[in-house]
């Protein structure tokens, strides 16, 4: 379902201006509905790798091996349903020193219609992650990067920091060759970038081998360019977890 087709059942108005306005809430860098940080404010060559929609096996475990081999810490925005499916993988994310972020319970587009404020989506994922991994995430990335004002209000009310980013490769969903994704992401990277990749697909899993295969070459290339790696909380100067 596209954002445009979803807007109508919500009764949000179908004027050109109204539609454009609500579509703006899906643009990674749009700040029109409130702060939606997509990069860190730094001139230093530091970058945050982020991985959405996991855990999704065997890809997340392979990815964790790649990151461990290279000594890189990343941020994983995981889906509550998937955490229930692969709890030991979520525990390993935290044990390996990565940061675990909340990416909703079901990652369903229609959840924005059933519950547009998204409070239960946020809370259910939070409860599962806390019970599985022993940490309460302080970072939230909304599915589809939807940052309607009422979503941002809910995330704030739940005392979470909302996080956007820059897509590592615009065609990642089609899984082009890993070398293409690595080259594209390296060319996109700027000081303070928060790069978005996917080790899963929504809450359904699916093949992500090429995304994972792109990560090692990307890390090597960025290091050659003088980049170091940070987690999103470090880059934004905010806590990773609730006290
Ligand atoms: Zn997602």
Rg (CA only): 17 Å
Helix content: 40-55%
Q: What distance separates the N and C termini? A: 37 Å
| Share of residues in strands | 5-15%
Low-confidence stretches: 1-13
Summed over residues and divided by their number, the pLDDT gives a mean of 92
List the bound ligands: zinc ion
Largest sheet, if any? 6 strands, parallel
Order of helices and strands: HHEHEHHEHHEHEEHEHEH
Total number of strands: 8
**Structural shape:** globular
Blueprint (SSEs and pairs):
Blueprint: H1 3-7, H2 16-24, E1 46-52, H3 59-70, E2 75-78, H4 80-85, H5 87-95, E3 99-102, H6 111-114, H7 119-133, E4 139-140, H8 149-157, E5 161-162, E6 166-167, H9 178-188, E7 194-198, H10 209-224, E8 228-229, H11 232-236
Parallel strand pairs: 1-2, 1-7, 1-8, 2-3, 4-5, 6-7
Helix pairs in contact: 3-10, 9-10
The structure holds zinc ion.
């Amino acid at each position: 379902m596209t954002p445009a087709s979803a807007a109508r059942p919500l009764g949000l108005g179908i004027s050109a201006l109204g539609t454009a306005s609500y579509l703006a809430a899906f643009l990674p860098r749009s700040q029109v509905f409130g702060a939606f940080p997509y990069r860190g404010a730094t001139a230093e060559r530091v970058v945050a790798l982020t991985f959405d929609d996991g855990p999704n096996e065997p890809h997340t475990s392979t990815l964790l091996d790649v990151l461990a081999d290279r000594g890189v810490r990343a941020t994983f925005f995981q889906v509550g349903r998937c955490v229930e499916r692969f709890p030991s993988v979520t525990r390993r994310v935290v044990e390996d020193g990565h940061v675990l972020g909340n990416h909703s319970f079901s990652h369903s587009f229609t959840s924005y219609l059933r519950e547009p404020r998204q409070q239960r989506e946020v809370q259910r994922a939070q409860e599962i992650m806390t019970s599985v991994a022993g940490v309460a995430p302080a970072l939230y990335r909304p599915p589809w990067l939807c940052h309607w004002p009422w979503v941002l209000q809910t995330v704030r009310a739940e005392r979470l920091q909302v996080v956007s980013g820059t897509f590592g490769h615009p065609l990642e969903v089609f899984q082009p060759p890993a070398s293409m994704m690595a080259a594209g992401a390296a060319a996109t990277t700027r000081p303070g970038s928060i790069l978005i990749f996917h080790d899963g697909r929504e809450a359904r899993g699916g093949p992500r081998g090429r995304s994972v295969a792109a990560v090692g070459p990307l890390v090597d290339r960025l290091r050659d360019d003088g980049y170091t790696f940070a987690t999103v909380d470090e880059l934004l100067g905010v806590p990773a977890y609730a006290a």
